[in-house]
Fold each of these.
Amino acid sequence: MVETKYSQKDIFKMIMILAIPAIVENFFQTILGFVDTYFVSQIGINEVTAVGVTNAILAIYLAIFMSVGVSTNVYIAKYIGSNQIEKAGKVAKQSILLSVIIGLLFGIITFLFAEPLLKLMGIEKTVLDQGVIYFKIVAIPSVLISLMFGLSSILRGTKDTKTPMKVTIFINIINIILDYVFIFGFWLIPSFGLAGAAWATVIARLVGVILLIFYVKKSKIGNVLNLTKWSWDKEQQKELIKLGTPAMAERLAMRIGQVIYFGFIVQLGTNTFAAHQITGNIEVFSYMIGYGFATAATTLIGEVLGSRQYELAKKIAYYSTFLGVGVMSIFGLFLFVFGEWTASFFTNDIFVIQQITIALKIDAFIQPILAIVLILTGAFQGAENSKYPFYLTTIGIWLLRTVGVYVLGIWLGMGIAGIWIAIGLDNLFRAILLFLKIHNNKWVRSTELTV
C-alpha cells in the first residue's frame, strides 16, 4: 500500500478536527455533572453520599461498557480506512448487539444485588436506603448506558466526533432541567427527591439513545446498516471482546489500585484525604483534554492502519501527543500559578487549602507526562494493541504508585507531597515505556510493520 502524503499541517488539522469536539463534550459533561451534584446536595448530605457511592459502583459498569466502545471505534475506523464499508457496518451491528446483551446483564445484576453491592461499600443504613432507590432506577436500565457508549463509538469510528458532542450536550441540558422539576417539583408535578434525580438521568439517556440511533442511520455506514435483521457473529464478537478486554482490565486495574492506595492516604488524616480528593477533582479537567486527543489518535490511527499506512500512523501518534502535551502544559502552568485561588472555591479550611496548593504545584509538572500516557494509550488502542497499556497500568498503579504513596507519603513523612510525587513517578514510568515501544516500531498488532 502506497503511503498517502500529508503535510504536518494536514495531520495537525485532522487531529484537531476530531479532538476539539471530544474535549468540548467531556468538558460540558463535567460542568453539568457539577450542577447535577449541586441540585442533589440541596436535598441532604445522605443523598449526596448515596449518589457518590452508587457512582463508584457504576464506574465498574462504565469500564466494561467503554471497552466495547474502544473495540468498536478501532474496527470501524480500520475497515473504513481500507474501504470495506460492508465490514464496518457489520462491526456496528455486532457492537450494538453486544452492547444490548451486556447492558441487560448488568441491569439484571442490579435488580438482584443492588443492596448487597452497596453494603460492600460500608455505608450507613440511612444512606443505604436512599442508595438502593437511586441505584436501581439508574442502573436497572443499564442497557441505555451501554448503548450510549456503543452508538457514540460507531460515530467516532466514522470520524464524526461532533455528533456525540452535540447529543451529550443536549441530553445533559435535559437532565439538568428534569433534575430541577423532578427533585423539587414544578406546577402539577410533585417533588420526588433523590428518585426524581434518578428518573431525570434515565429519561435523558433514553433521549440520547434515540438521537444516536437516528444519527448512526444517517452516517457513512448507514446505508449498509440493516437494523431489522440481527444474528450473532461469533468471530466478529470474539474480535470485539479480544480487543476490548485489556482496555476494560486497564480501567478496572486503575479503579482497584485507587482503592488500595486511598487506604494509605486515609492514614494521613481526614484533611489530607479531603485535599487529595479535591485536587483530583480539579485535575479532572486535564483528563478531558488528554482523552480528547486520545480519541483523535485512536480513530485516525485505526483508519490509516486499515490501509497499512504505518509511517503515517506513527506520525499521528507523535503529533497527537505533541499537541496534547502543549495544551496540558498550559493547564499545568495554570495549576502552578492559580492553585491556591482554585482551592479556595472548594473549602475555607486554611490547612486543606495549603495541602491542595502543594499537590497542584506538583501536579503542574505531571501534566505533560500525563498527556503522553493518555494519548499514547489511545494510539496503542487504535493499533489494536490494548494489552501493553494494561500491563503498564497494572504495574504502575499497583506497584509504583501504591508503594510510592506508602513509602513517600507515610514512611518518609512527606504527606500529600509524597502522594503526588508517587503519582508522577507512576505516570513517568508508563510514559517512557509507551514512547519507547512506538519509537522502536513494536506497537502495532501486525507482523507486516517494518518501518
Amino acid sequence: MTIKLKSTLAVLALSTALTACSSGGNEPAASSGSGETASGSGTEAAATNQAGSAGGDFKKLGDEPLKLTLYSTGATFTDVEFEAMIAGPIHAKYPNVTIERITPAATTTPEEVLSTHVPDIIFGSVQQRVIRTGVYQDLRDLIKKHNFDLSRLKPVGINYITEITKGEGDAILALPFNINQHIMYYNKDIFDKFGVPYPTEKQLTWDEAIELGTQLTRTENGVNYVGLVVDNLTGLSKSLGLPYLDRETGQAALDTPEWLRVFETAKKLYEIPGYVTPDGTWDWTRDHFMKDQNIAMRVAWLANMVGPLEELRQQGVEFNWDIAPAPNFEDQLGKTREAQIHSIAINSQSPHQDEAFQVIAEILSDDGQRIIAKNGRVPAIINPELEKDYGADIPVLQGKTVQNVFIGEPLQEHYIHPYESEISKHLKTAAEDLAVGGLDVNSAIRKATDAINKDVETLKTTIGQ
C-alpha cells in the first residue's frame, strides 16, 4: 500500500474517530486551550513527580535536541492536559526531548493534517477502520526490545486493543494511555435551589435517577432546568455494552431485548414534563451543563468534562458541582458503563519509532501514570495506590468527591465496527423521534434499523469489509 493511499484511507478512518469522545451534541473533540499548565500541574508537577524507571533510557540519545510530534484525534485532550500529562513531564526529566502537538485549525480535516505532517505519536481511540489504513506501527518488536511488561496494564484496556486487532496477525498497534470512565456530574446549586438532597456514593438505578431528575426539571424565571441528561440512546447503551452493528454481518443490532430496554428508558426520560422545552429543545449537551448551567445531572465520560471544566475555571468561570457514580439498570448495579480506552501509538511512517516508544514507556511507568492520575485521568496500569492521587494536581477537582470515580466496575468497550460512526447518526435521529417526533419505541427501533441497513449496503461498496 502506498503512503498516498494510506493517507487517503487514514482520513476516512480518522474522521470516524473524531466523534469518539464528543458525547454531547456538537462538542469539539479537543478544546483549544492556552497551552499553559494549571496551577500545581504540568511541568511543575513533573519536576516533583518525575517519571519512573520503567521507561526507556534517553541517555543513549546524547545531548542533541530531539523533537517528537503528537497528533490527537477522536478524544477530548485539551492543550492544558497535553502539557500537564505528556509534554511537561517528559521535558522536565529529559531536557533535550521536546514533544510538540500538531494542532490544526478547527476546520482542518485529518486528510489535510496527514498530507502535510507525519506525527511520531498518535493519541486517540483504536478503531478497526483506523487499523486498516496502516497508520499504526505494530509495537511487538519494540515491546520486546525494551522489555516492556504488558502484564502491568489493566485488562479492560489492553484486552480491548488486542481484541479489536484479531485477524491482524495478533499485532499490538497501541497501548492504553488511560481508562476513560463514566461518572455522574451534578450541579449542587440547582439541587440547593429546589431543596433536593444531593446524590451520594450509592449507585442509583436508572429509574431512581429519572425520578430524581423529575424533581429537578422545571422552568423558573424563564430558565428551563433539566434534571438528568444521559447522552441519549448511545449513552444509555453503554450501560450494557451494546454494539450498534452485528460484528459479522454489519447489519443493525438494535432488535434485541437489551436495546428495547435502552429505548424504553430514553422514552421515559424524554417524557418528563419540561424535559423538552416549548420551542422543541431536547438534545442537552456538555455546554448546557458547564456554561449555561441549567442541567442538574449529566452522565458522561471523565475526559469529556474534567479537562474542559479546568479550562473553564482558568477562564474565571466556576460553579458548585460534584460527582457521583454513574447509574445503571437494577440488575447491573456494581457496574458502570463502557470504559473507552484512550490509546497512544506510533506512526508507521515515523523516523523516530524507537524514541517514541521510549516516551510511551515513560508515560506508562508508575510515576508517569501518577502524573496522569493527579491530573484527572484514570491510569491504564494496575496500581491501586494511584487512585489515592486521583485529581490531586488539577484545581477544578479540589474538594470534589473523587472517590466516587472508582465506585463500580467499568465494562470493556464493545467492538467498534468499521461502519459504526457512519451509521450512529441514525441513533441520534431515533432519539429525536422518541423525544419530539411522536414515535413509539418499537416504531423508532424499526425506522432506525431500516435506515442503518440501507446505509450498510452502501458502505459495503464504498468502504468494503
Amino acid sequence: MTTVDLDGVYRAEYGRCVATLTRLLGDIGLAEEFVQDAFAVAVQKWEQKPPPNPGAWIVTTARNRAIDRLRRESTRQARHAQALLLHQPDEPQEVGPVRDDQLRMIFTCCHPALSPPARTALTLRLLGGLEVAEIARAYLVPEATVFQRIVRAKKKIRDAAIPYRIPGAAELPDRLASVLTVLYLIFNEGYASTSGELLRTDLCLEAVRLARELAALMPDEPEAIGLLALLLLTEARRPARVGPSGELVVLAEQDRSRWNRELIAEGHELVRRCLRRNQPGPYQLQAAINAVHTDGPATDWTQVLALYDQLLHHTPTPIVALNRAVAVAEVHGPGPALAAIEHLDLPGYHLLPATRADLLARLGRTTEARAAYDQAITLTTNTTERTHLQARRARLTPDP
C-alpha cells in the first residue's frame, strides 16, 4: 500500500477508530495515543501486505497495544481497564439513545463543562480528523489558539473525570447546538478543503451520514432536520462543482443535469417539514436558501435575498452579511452589494476580497479589482480555489 493510500485511510478511518477505542478504553486521550501508534505500525506493515479491512486492523492493533501497556502497569485502575479490554465482546450491546460510536463521541466531547470553542475544536480534531490548520481556518483564528483550545479541552476531560458514556435523552438537547456546529464544519471542510484538491468527499459523506443519525435520534428538533436538509442539498451539487480538469465551477456555471435529483427531492421534503413547524433557525434558513437554488432551471434571487434578510436578522455575522451581498448584487446590482460589504471585517478570509474583486470588476473598476484579487489569492490556501481566482483576474479587461 502506498503512502497516499495510507493517508487516505487515515483521513477516512481516524475518527471511527478513535471513537471505537474510546468506547473500549473509556479514555479519549489514551484512545488517540494508541490509534496513532497503530497507524505508525501500519507504515511498516502495510507496505508488504495491506489488510482487507484497514479500519478494523487499526482498531485491533491499537487495542492490542493498549492491553500490552496495561499489563505493564501495576495500578488497580490499569488492571481493571485491562480486564474490560480482554473481555470486550466483538459486538457489544449498547444501551441508550446514541447508538453510533462517532455520534456518541461528538456528544461526549460537547459536554457542557467544556467551553463551546473547545468542544468544537476537540471534536473536529478527534472525529473529523481535521488538522489544526484546517480548524483554524474554519474559525478564522490563529493556529496557536486552536492548539491551546484542544490541549485545554483534553486536560479538562482528564482533570474533571468527564466520563465517556452515552448521554441520557434529557441531556441531548443541551448539547445539540455544538453537535450541529461540528457536523456543519466537517462538511464544509470536505466541500472546500483547506489545502490540496478542492473536495474531500470522505468528509462530506461522513458528515451527511452523521447528520442522518442525528436527525433520526432527534426527529423533533427542527434544527437537526434543517442541518440534514442543508447538507443534502449542498451535497447534491457536488458532482457539478468541479470541471473535467478538476477546476472549480461556480454555481451560476454548473451543469444542473449533473446534480443529484434524489438528494434534492429528499432535501426539499425536509425543508417543507421545517416550514410546517414554523420554528426557523439558522440551519433551516440556509437549507431553504439551498432549496431555492436547486428548484427549477435558475435561481430565484429575490427569494434568496428575502431568506438572507431573515438569516441575517437571526444570525448577524459578517459571513452571513457577505453571502447576503451576493444576492444583493443579483437583485439590485453590484453597487449596493459593494456598499454592503465595505464595513465587514473578516481577517484572513479570502472570500471577502474575492467577492469584492468580483463586484469591482462588474462595476468596471479593474485596477481595484486586480488588487482585491491579489489579496484573495494571497489568502487562499486551497490550490483549486487559487487557480480559479488567478483565472478570473487574468480575464479582467485592460485598463483604458
